[in-house]
From TrEMBL:
InterPro entries: Battenin_disease_Cln3, Battenin_disease_Cln3_subgr, MFS_trans_sf. This is Battenin. It comes from the Eukaryota. GO terms for biological process: lysosome organization; regulation of intracellular pH. The keyword Transmembrane helix applies. It comes from Synaphobranchus kaupii (Kaup's arrowtooth eel). Keywords: Lysosome, Membrane, Transmembrane, Transmembrane helix, Transport. GO terms for cellular component: endomembrane system; lysosomal membrane. Pfam families: CLN3.
């Protein structure tokens, strides 16, 4: 798409197209890096916090909780007489601690975050991500490590709702770039952390090296993206009339046959036509978003119910991988599935997300029955199901936000993109609450 509004008609068409292509790829790659960096700290911090706590030789209950949450189940608990190879505490316990800060931010921030300019929001994300790396790398207590994880959660939650709402000022395809980047964070973060520690670096040194990630986020935002004219980088949009006057000359006249292409050029200016949304208007928009939020929440509920409630119980003693290795591969294949499906928006769009919700619930029921009756013959079958699970979850995420961007009116779109981000976090939190009693039930058998 072309971002060259305002260029003289006498300029060669080739020049205009060239600038448009350059702008398109810069913004697409910029949002991919923002997605990667936004989720990177959250992914890496979990494993890093576990390693730091082990170095501190802290064996209290909080440490055991962290160990369970970091996707690294330990061997069978000799004191546990359960039929299952259970951890003392479900991985869902710390999942709640990890997701609640993000959920609270996503519930509250859309109603007031528009008063904070995007530039300050990004700096806050960079600062909290940097703090998370520093806190855990220099931690001497369990509480300090947990605080570092909380900072990572705050950064990820604020970043997600801010960058999703930021996409309304750009070509709609940047939603695909953002989604692909967030999917890549799980794969790249886990592999990079494992590679550096496997190479002999201590977890503390590895974390300090990864301080480059928040810096990349800042560079991607401030130097790589090409913002539309009059973008409110450092001040909130209070002078709606002025902004509207400036942009009314640049917006193309309506073309019914090319409405989508026109809308893709830039959504900037339209939100300011009638000022900020009132609280009542926001509630009306939220009601209209339920058709997007509910299916997304269901997908993520089923997804994390599997990941944090069932996978640690699906252990195959006769398989050539240990319990910890099986669980690690479950998570790795899940992340790979998420990455590919979150990158699929460039070649495939799927509006009926509710179908993905149903299919994900089928996965959850199937694996619940498999845990109870233990009828699956090999871990390889679970590997395939988990990869498929990741494909469904990633596809639901990117298609939800793509069609919110497409179907929502210009004035409401910025709020809608940030408000709808609560869907996945709500589903994850609900899955944590459900998975804890399920884990305790199976481990009591």
């Amino acid at each position: 798409m072309d971002y060259t509004d305002g260029i003289s008609d006498q300029e060669p068409i080739v020049t205009s197209n060239s600038r448009g292509r350059d702008s398109f790829w810069r913004n697409l790659s910029g949002f991919w890096l923002l997605g990667l960096c936004n989720n990177f700290a959250y992914v890496v911090m979990l494993s890093a916090a576990h390693d730091i706590l082990k170095q501190q030789e802290t064996h209290n209950t909080t440490t055991n909780t962290l160990s369970a949450s970091l996707n690294q189940p330990e061997g069978r608990n000799n004191s546990n007489s359960s039929l299952y190879d259970c951890n003392p505490v479900s991985t869902a316990a710390v999942l709640l601690a990890d997701i609640l800060p993000t959920l609270l931010i996503k519930l509250a921030a859309p109603f007031f975050i528009h008063k904070c300019p995007y530039g300050f929001r990004v700096l806050l994300c960079v600062a909290t991500a940097t703090s998370s790396f520093l806190l855990v790398s220099f931690s001497t207590t369990v509480g300090m490590s947990i605080l570092g994880v909380i900072f990572a959660s705050v950064s990820a939650g604020l970043g997600e709702l801010s960058f999703l709402s930021l996409t309304v000022f750009f070509d709609r395809t940047v939603v695909g770039g953002w989604g692909s980047g967030t999917g890549g964070a799980g794969v790249v973060g886990a592999l990079l952390y494992s590679a550096l520690t496997q190479a002999g670096l201590s977890p503390r040194v590895t974390l300090r090296i990864m301080l480059v990630v928040p810096a990349v986020m800042a560079v991607s935002y401030f130097f790589l993206l090409e913002f539309p004219p009059y973008f409110p980088q450092w001040q909130s949009r209070k002078r709606e009339g002025l902004l509207h006057d400036k942009n009314s000359q640049e917006r193309r006249p309506p073309m019914t046959e090319q409405e989508e292409e026109e809308d893709n050029v830039s959504a900037f200016g339209d939100p300011a036509v009638a000022g900020d949304l009132t609280c009542r208007e926001k509630l009306v928009v939220l009601r209209g978003l339920l058709k997007f939020i509910i299916p997304l929440s269901v997908v993520y509920f089923a997804e994390y119910f599997i990941n944090q409630g069932l996978l640690e119980l699906l252990f195959f003693p006769d398989y050539h991988l240990s319990h910890a290795e099986q669980y690690r591969w479950y998570q790795t294949l899940y992340q790979i599935g998420v990455f590919f499906s979150r990158s699929s928006l460039f070649c495939l769009k799927f509006r009926k997300v509710w179908i993905l919700s149903v299919l994900q619930c089928v996965n959850a029921v199937l694996l619940s029955v498999a845990v109870y009756y233990q009828f699956l013959p090999t871990a390889a079958i679970v590997f395939a199901i988990v990869a498929y699970e990741g494909l469904l979850g990633g596809a639901a995420y990117v298609n939800t936000f793509y069609f919110i961007s497409k179907d929502t009116g210009s004035r409401e779109r910025e709020f809608a993109m940030s408000a709808a981000s609560v869907g996945d976090s709500f589903g994850i939190a609900l899955s944590g609450l459900t998975a804890i009693p399920l884990h305790n039930y199976f481990c009591s058998l």
